[in-house]
Specification:
The structure is a single chain. The protein is built from 7 helices and 11 strands. α1 packs across α5. The protein folds into 2 domains: about 1-20 and about 190-208; about 20-190, Sandwich (Immunoglobulin-like), CATH 2.60.40.420. It is α+β, with helices and mostly antiparallel strands. The chain is globular. Residues about 170-208 have low confidence and may be disordered. It has helices at about 1-15, 85-90, 135-145, 175-180, 180-190, 190-195, 200-205; strands spanning about 20-25, 35, 35-40, 45-50, 55, 60, 85, 95-100, 105-110, 120-125, 160-165. A hairpin with a 7-residue loop joins β1 (about 20-25) and β2. Bound molecules: 2-acetamido-2-deoxy-beta-D-glucopyranose (6 copies).
Length: about 210
């Protein structure tokens, strides 16, 4: 475990060069992503911190909200899977899911739990500037009349799951790279081999 701790520390310092945007999920138990509109540059990370309940962050197309993007396009997209907070909370940890932004294409996102998407639990990364109809407001309006489809396991992936002990939700959308090494480090844990070393217990020890 010593070795993996050293490795993670090394990765975290590398990661501090890359900006990580923090989006809190279900702040105050609400059906929200906060902030729900961010602009992120290629290479940057977006880390979702699940604060309550049992939610997902799942990619759809603009035209078909609440349905996995793979159903309506050739993109695989990403899906965090369900992130029940209670189990981690009892260990003082918060589940996270971190994606890397590869380009400036818009990413339309929803929660696949129950009717959360229909009820407005949606967000956008890189809302397009060139098409005035493709706004978060219009996406939310379409979602209100949609029907949630659960992604199968095939679309789980595209991001990295983890935990942090100190949610940085007090500065939503803030620059986690400078304020929270733990958050930025989690963003860099993209190698599954490394990540499996980071059991919840090890994570707790590491971030004490
Ligand atoms: C959560 O509660 C705090 C304090 O009342 C408030 O400032 C914040 O806007 C709330 N967040 C959301 C997403 O509603
Ligand atoms: C998606 O795949 C289909 C079938 O392979 C193809 O006809 C279509 O052109 C592709 N669309 C895009 C946007 O690449
Ligand atoms: C989270 O929600 C999913 C989908 O509704 C459900 O299958 C799963 O059992 C829930 N997990 C917990 C711990 O409640
Ligand atoms: C925007 O929506 C309006 C009303 O549905 C439509 O008439 C218009 O063509 C759309 N504009 C674009 C750029 O898609
Ligand atoms: C999910 O993955 C498991 C294990 O790989 C597989 O047995 C199961 O059939 C998959 N379920 C769906 C809905 O694809
Ligand atoms: C960025 O590219 C990586 C590697 O191809 C992929 O795993 C990831 O899902 C992509 N990110 C997004 C947001 O699609």
């Amino acid at each position: 475990m010593q070795f993996s701790t050293l490795l993670l520390t090394a990765l975290a310092s590398v990661a501090s060069a890359q900006r990580t945007w923090v989006v809190t999920v279900a702040q105050n138990g609400s059906l929200t992503y906060s902030p729900n509109k961010i602009t992120a540059a290629p290479g940057e990370f977006v880390q979702f911190q699940f604060l309550a309940g049992n939610h997902t962050v799942t990619q759809s197309t603009f035209d078909k909200p609440c349905q996995p993007v793979a159903m309506h396009s050739n993109a695989t997209g990403f899906h965090s899977g369900f992130q029940p907070v209670a189990a981690s909370a009892s260990m003082g940890m918060v589940p996270t899911y971190t994606i890397q932004i590869n380009n400036t294409n818009p990413l339309w996102l929803y929660c696949a739990q129950g009717r959360h998407c229909e009820n407005g639990m949606v967000m956008v990364i890189n809302e397009p500037a060139t098409n005035p109809n493709r706004t978060l407001e219009n996406y939310k309006a379409l979602a209100a009349g949609a029907q949630t489809v659960l992604p199968g396991n095939a679309t789980v992936g595209g991001g990295t799951s983890g935990t942090v002990d100190t949610p940085t939700g007090t500065t939503p959308g803030g620059d986690a790279a400078s304020s929270s090494p733990a958050a930025a480090g989690a963003g860099m844990l993209s190698a599954p081999a490394i990540f499996t070393l980071l059991s919840a217990g090890a994570a707790a020890a590491l971030f004490l």
